[in-house]
Amino acid sequence: MKRTLIFIMIMALSGVVIFAGPATADQFPSETVTYQIPFNPGGQSDVEARRQQPLLEKALGVKVVVQYKPGGGGSVGWAYLVKQKPNGYFISGINIPHIILQPLARGNAGYKTEQLAPIALFQATPIGIAVMKDSNFKTLNDLIEYAKKNPGAVTCGGSGTWSGHHIAYLQLQKMAGIKMTYIPYKGASPSVAAFLGGHVNTLWGNSNDLFQHKDRIRVLAFGTNQAFAPMPDVPTFKSLGYNLMASIDRGAGAPPGTPAEVIKVLEKAFLDIANDPKVKAQMLKDGFVPVSMGAAESKAYIQDKVKEWAPVVKEFKK
Amino acid sequence: MLDAAISGLGHVFAFYNFLFLFIGVFMGIVFGALPGLTATMGLALLVPFTFTMSPAGGLIMLAGIYVGAMYGDSIPAILINTPGTPAAIATTFDGFPLSQKGMAQHGLVAAAVASSFGSLVANIVLATSAPPLAEASLKFGPPEYFWLGIFGLTIIATLSSGFIFKGLLGGAFGLILSTVGMAPLGGDVRLTFGYPELQAGIELIVALIGFFCLPEILSSIIGQRRQSYSSQKVTPKLGVIGEVIVSLLKKPILMIRSSAIGTIIGFAPGAGGNIASMVSYNEAIRWDKNPKDFGKGTIKGVAASEAANSAMAPGSLIPLLTLGIPGSPPAAVILGALMLHGMKPGPELFSAYADVTFSFIMALLVAAFLVTVVGTFGSFIFARIINIPARLLAPAIVFMTVLGSYSIRNNMLDVWIMFTFGVIGYASNKLKFHPAPIVLGLILGPFVEEGLVQSMLAGKAAGGILKYMIFRPISAVLIAMCIMSALWPIYASWRARRVKDSPRVKE
Amino acid sequence: MLNADRIIGFFSLAFGGVIFAVTRDLSQLGGVFVNYVLIAIFFLAAIMIVKGFTKPERLRFFDSMVERNNILIGLIILFIYLFFMPKVGFLPASYIFYACFNIYLAEDRWTTKNIIQSVAISAIVVTFFFLIFHFFLAVPLPIGSWFE
């Protein structure tokens, strides 16, 4: 009886060694891939990842597990990502401008922008500024004129500090020479709720939120190169004379040092999904802009953005 | 609308859908009950499974999970003084004393019945008046959240055993703890002492386990070598069910008030059920003829807390379904599920997709009934859990809480935080300093801070901070409530003294 | 006999002081709330200290030496568990912890019967929950740096 129990214990303990065994890596991918979402479940990054999950599994031929690690606007997840083994079995959603602005604005975000190895970018959410339909501001110029005469009186709601919304607000202030008041909220949903409830005059919003409520609001401008396809009547900042590009871009990234062949495989999987017409149509229907940038293109894009925003952050961070 | 409701009901009772609902409720109860697992986690895990089902089927299962979890969290609250989710904190106040008296089954049945009642009331509200209520909920701006937070803090008066300033001090500690992490405004990273994981702040459940579960284990099981969690063995009896139901039916005002509080707090976006149950508990004490009963183990306390926290769930779905703004984290996951099925929140949910939407709402209702059934009959099994000798149960609980704390955010630091709070909670209990106000501060801190700073910003832009924060209809009501709530203890003791001195009491 | 109020009061003062010191570099928006709460803490701490000198609440922390030893040993076992978990991995640490804790809590400590019972139950309970969390919930649990 005693011997049987000891035997069971040995079996149980050796089970540990088996579970802890090294990954057999002959051909990537041959094991489950973990796709981390550095935000709470239910958010936009999550919804997109869930749409990609079955397609990724088909493309890569292995199971893909979605894991959440929310916190710090994504920084906790990215801090975790850069510590993982660069073998391609752990990837994470990445968001621009977050991964650029967080290390710039915070002393220690837990990671550095250069450490994230981009795989692909597949979605862009243009940022626009909106007012309620019954507001006196019919165009962006109306707003700017009013703000010139009443510095600090116009309140702008947005999501987070040192986020895409905040940077867009800072850049517009500088370009137009005006002063408004930015009121950050803890996410896109609360800022939209506050705006609809009349607690802020204007909203810096993501295209999908603005699109969803388009019947109640008037979008004054979007920060894109071309007009936003689902809402073509809205002018771009560029067409109104302000060289303001603002959007939240979503993609996927890997830990630093991930070998190029591994990234290539992942990149192909993501780009195939991004180029799928059904996926593109779904994104447009929800108010997003489909994008398909590969690893090298994404890296260059990120570096451009770093150059663009580093001085802005430094200037306003006093 | 009535025919949509009936057709929705039909969907719910279709064989597979009903099976999914049952599975959902069961899983929800499990997720709610295991400390460390939350309703949000359970929902997030099962959303992928729902892809392959029809939208109605998938949403029906999610409804089951949500409702089940709102009941499940009362089980460990009653049995081992550990709220299964933060929404059940107030259930421990009377639930655990009940089980200490050997009346665990009473507590469990009361929780089941009250949960169902709360769910029922809130669902009826959801089904009938969702759109106008959602518009009303938008009127909650920064000042309203601030005053709501302050109102929540006045509950400390009830929670502090003895000297009220001790409780306020605890609340203040909690408020400081809530600032750990990224500042909501200003973007600073505060009090992380070099740990990047702390950028997200202190996880509430970890703090709950630390402050509620571990001190109990440390003091009774380890310190005093008690052989079992409760001083009397529990023998579940069928009669208890009837007894509890009857005594709750005799208190309709308590039940209705608690459910109303839960529904209303539920649809203030973001407020969530964490404070609904505590506010309801506080109000139950305030308006009861025998306030001294509370805290020593009375089913009134359990019912007040559970009715509110279950009513919160449908309440939080009101702004979700009409405006796409989730009123709580589980609602956010449901939003994700809706989006994945291509259903966008808004008026079209109630017109073009009315069929599916009402299936979902009816599922919430039916799930509430299932909870009564599972809960009352399950009470026979659950209540017996604490009969297990402590030397087997306690290590299992510690092990599970370690597991749970780790898996919430996949990080070891949370486990250490849980351990630290456990020691602090033990020490503070020994110093007669109840940790509940600390937890309250931790929960309310974000509301108070965000409300305050956002109001300051907006007020400055509008030309007057104080003017901005006070002269608004909802704020005015809330401020009046705060003042009343803060001064109430003075009024109550004056009244008690008057009654004592009055000659009539002598007979 | 400990003067509970004075202990709480002085501890709060110290706590407030530490928080004050580390938060001086916050921006205006980030620091305003912290400052208000700190003011409250200092004020309340002062009240507690005053009460500690005028109408103190005295109590005994541990009811007996036995209790103190029990708590200390319990905490040490727990601490060792958490400390070694990242090093040896979740599973082995938990098996050992559960078994030890079980043995410690029992009345008859070092009997063979007790030890074997504890180890067996530990194996069953820990494995069961591990399977649920690892396979069903796909939560990655620490493997243990010694094994990597």
Description:
The complex is a heterotrimer of chains A (318), B (507) and C (148). Chain A has eleven helices and ten strands. Chain A is of the alpha/beta class and 318 residues long. Chain A folds into two domains: 30-123 and 249-317, 3-Layer(aba) Sandwich (D-Maltodextrin-Binding Protein, domain 2); 126-240, Periplasmic binding protein-like II (D-Maltodextrin-Binding Protein, domain 2, 3-Layer(aba) Sandwich). In chain A, helix 2 (44-60) crosses helix 9. The termini of chain A are far apart. Chain B has one domain. Chain B is an all-alpha fold. Chain C is an all-alpha fold. Chain C is built from five helices and two strands, in the order E-H-H-E-H-H-H. Chain C has a two-stranded antiparallel sheet. The longest helix of chain C is centred in the N-terminal third of the chain and has 27 residues, at 28-54. Chain C is flat. The chains are: A alpha/beta (318), B mainly alpha (507), C mainly alpha (148). Chains in contact: A-B, A-C, B-C. Chains A and C meet through helix 1 of A and helix 4 and helix 5 of C.
Key words describing this protein structure:
heterotrimer, B: 507 residues, mainly alpha, 76% helix, globular, C: 148 residues, 2 domains, 5 helices
What's the arrangement of secondary structure elements?
The complex is a heterotrimer of chains A (318), B (507) and C (148).
Chain A: H1 2-19, E1 33-37, H2 44-60, E2 64-68, H3 75-81, E3 90-96, H4 98-105, E4 117-132, H5 140-149, E5 155-159, H6 164-176, E6 181-185, H7 188-196, E7 202-206, H8 207-212, E8 217-222, E9 247-254, H9 260-275, H10 277-286, E10 289-293, H11 295-317
Parallel strand pairs in A: 1-2, 1-3, 5-6, 5-7
Antiparallel strand pairs in A: 3-9, 4-7, 4-8, 4-9, 4-10
Helix pairs in contact in A: 2-9, 4-11
Chain B: H1 2-13, H2 15-33, H3 39-51, H4 55-72, H5 74-80, H6 89-100, H7 104-138, H8 142-154, H9 156-159, H10 164-178, E1 181-182, E2 189-190, H11 204-223, H12 238-249, H13 252-267, H14 272-287, H15 299-323, H16 329-340, H17 347-350, H18 354-385, H19 390-409, H20 412-430, H21 436-462, H22 465-470, H23 473-501
Antiparallel strand pairs in B: 1-2
Helix pairs in contact in B: 1-18, 2-3, 2-4, 2-18, 3-4, 3-16, 4-15, 4-16, 4-18, 5-6, 5-7, 6-7, 6-15, 7-12, 7-13, 7-15, 7-18, 8-21, 8-23, 10-21, 11-19, 11-20, 11-21, 13-14, 13-15, 14-15, 19-20
Chain C: E1 2-3, H1 4-22, H2 28-54, E2 58-59, H3 65-88, H4 90-105, H5 112-136
Antiparallel strand pairs in C: 1-2
